Amino acid sequence: MAYSVAVVGASGRMGTLATRLIEGSDDFEVHARLGSRDSLDAIEGADLVLDVTLPAVSPEVVEAAVSRGIPVLVGTSGWTAERLQRVRSRLGDEPELGVIVVPNFSLGSVVATRLATIAAPYFDSIEIIEAHHAGKSDSPSGTAIRTAELIAESRAERGPVAAPHADQRARGQQVASVPVHSLRLDGVLAEQQVIFGGVGETMRISHQTVSDASYEAGILLALRALPGTRGLVVGLDTLLGL
Length: 242
Description:
With 242 residues, the chain is an alpha/beta fold. 31% of the residues lie in helices and 27% in strands. The protein has a 6-stranded parallel sheet, sandwiched between helices. The chain has a 5-stranded mixed sheet with strand order 7-8-6-9-10.
C-alpha cells in the first residue's frame, strides 16, 4: 500500500526535494502539491501531510492536519518549546495520531547535536554559531534552537551556562541560556558549530551540509515512521534511538 502525502510548501527547496523523493519511492505517492499561501482544504483525503513551509504558516498547517485526523511531519524551522507544548496539549493525553517535528533531516547534524549534549555537562562556557543561506527566513535556526534546548536539558543539574554581558545584542540571542549567533550568507548551505570553553582549552563540535542530498535519508525515515506514531515526537534523534 502506498501512502498519499500532501506536501505543503512543495515549491520551495525542501518541498521540491521531498516531492521528488515521494514520487520516486514505492511506498508513497503525492496527494497534492500546495504552496504556503494555498488553501489547506486540498489536504483533505491525504494519508499524511508534510509541512515544509514558513515559521508563520507551519502551526496553521499542523492544526489543519490534526483537525482532519491526518498525521503530519513538520520540517519547518521555528518550533520552540512553547509551540511544541501547544501541540502536545492539542493532541491530548491519548493521541490517536502522530505529529513528528524534525528541525534537521541530516543524519550528521543529528549525531553532532547528540555529541554536544554529551559534552555539555562538563563545560560552563558554551555558545553556538550557525550559518545558513541568505534566503533563510528565520533565525536562530530550528537546529540551533533544538541543540540549545537539549544542551540545557543535559546539564540541568549543573545549571545554566555562563553567558556574560547578555544585555549586549552582539553577544547573541540566548536560547535556554545558550548564546546563539546566526549568520545568513550567500555561498553557505548550512553549518553549525557548538563551541565549549574550559580552563585552558576549547572544544568544537562542527557540522557542515554541502548538499541537499544529506536530507534524503532523514526525510524518508521520518515519513515511514509517521503512520505508526502516536503523539508528538521531536527530532530525528528520537526516531534513530539516540
